[in-house]
Design brief:
Protein name: AraC family transcriptional regulator
Number of strands: 9
Largest sheet: 5 strands, antiparallel
CATH superfamily of the largest domain: Jelly Rolls
InterPro entries: AraC_XylS_family_regulators (IPR050204), Homeodomain-like_sf (IPR009057), HTH_AraC (IPR018060), HTH_AraC-typ_CS (IPR018062), Tscrpt_reg_AraC-type_HTH (IPR020449)
Pfam family, one: HTH_18
Keywords: DNA-binding, Transcription, Transcription regulation
GO molecular function, one term: sequence-specific DNA binding
Low-confidence stretches: none
């Protein structure tokens, strides 16, 4: 299937990088969101390539200082600014944003179609979002995007260990933040409707448990329940005390503890059966949640082997 958005290799080509790791989600109706990591430690001096014109924005978290960055829009020189690591920059893909690449760089780029921002405004009394507020080449000190970026950077390093629910959750949070901070969307107080109906909780939990590796998307479960993603996520957390991706991790650990009662079953097989990417992933998550490694827990609880 042909890629439509400016992310992954399509973004990488414009920035003259060969590798562009990407995480993709479709957590808002049919809008595809993505985060791409781009890095080049030995660039040649040239203007970045022209990116496909789209009704979408790139929100970029800079991970490395980039002094005297020469910025262009719509074929014209705009400004020259010192970029600091940790700063956030916005780019409107309709305006052909480009810059001179003549120094090493390292950034995360969040791809946000306007349709995704409009979906955030589909609530009573909320106006449609027009243009995002930004000045070309001028950065923002945005702690929320720094936090989300750092979290997703870890996920980009371990894509096999990252469940889709987690990516959906983080990208939904980022889109809501951008819509409110740069698009003027006012948070609307939600009526106190409580959590999901009991049948919805059961169906959602059954759906999650049937896919312990976490490949199912938030949007898919929400659609099956006749809810928006934001309504489902909020209601699920109220009903269970955890967001969906954390609830799923708990279920993986629960499944693993049950499997560890089988004395001769290797931990490597238990890890895969419980939905973890590998034994290392299993050990890390189990230790974080339980406080001891799987081998230690098994030995102390059932007297089984460590491996």
């Amino acid at each position: 299937m042909t890629q439509a958005g400016v992310y992954g290799q399509r973004l990488g080509r414009g920035l003259h990088v060969k590798e562009a790791p990407v995480l993709i989600t479709r957590s808002l109706r049919s809008a595809e969101l993505a985060v791409t990591e781009v890095r080049n430690d030995k660039p040649t001096s040239e203007l970045s390539g022209s990116l496909p014109a789209e009704d979408a924005y790139l929100v970029s978290l800079k991970l490395r200082d980039y002094p005297a960055c020469e910025c262009w829009e719509e074929g014209r020189y705009v400004t020259r600014e010192d970029i600091r690591a940790g700063a956030t920059y916005l780019y409107d893909l309709k305006r052909d944003p480009r810059y001179v690449i003549d120094k090493p760089f390292h950034s995360l780029f969040f791809y946000l179609p306007r349709s995704a921002l409009h979906d955030m405004a589909r609530q009573p009394g909320a106006p449609r979002i027009g243009e995002l507020s930004y000045e070309p080449g001028v950065g923002h000190d945005d702690g929320v995007i720094r936090h989300i970026g750092a979290t997703l950077q870890e996920a980009l390093r371990r894509p096999d260990e990252t469940n889709q629910l987690f990516v959906d959750h983080m990208m939904l949070a980022l889109t809501a933040h951008v819509a409110q901070t740069y698009g003027g969307l006012k948070p609307v107080a939600e009526p106190n409707r409580g959590g999901l109906a009991p049948w919805q909780v059961k169906r959602a939990c059954d759906r999650l448990e049937s896919d312990l590796p976490g490949k199912v998307a938030l949007e898919q479960i929400a659609t099956e329940l006749g809810l928006s993603v934001s309504h489902f996520s909020r209601g699920f957390r109220i009903s269970t005390g955890l967001p969906p991706h954390q609830w799923l991790l708990r279920q993986r650990v629960k499944a693993a503890t049950q499997l560890m009662t089988v004395r001769n079953l290797p931990l490597s097989e238990i890890a895969i059966s419980a939905g973890f990417a590998n034994q290392s992933h299993f050990t890390r998550v189990f230790t974080q949640m339980v406080g001891v490694s799987p081998g230690t827990w098994r030995r102390e609880t059932h007297g089984g082997p460590d491996a």
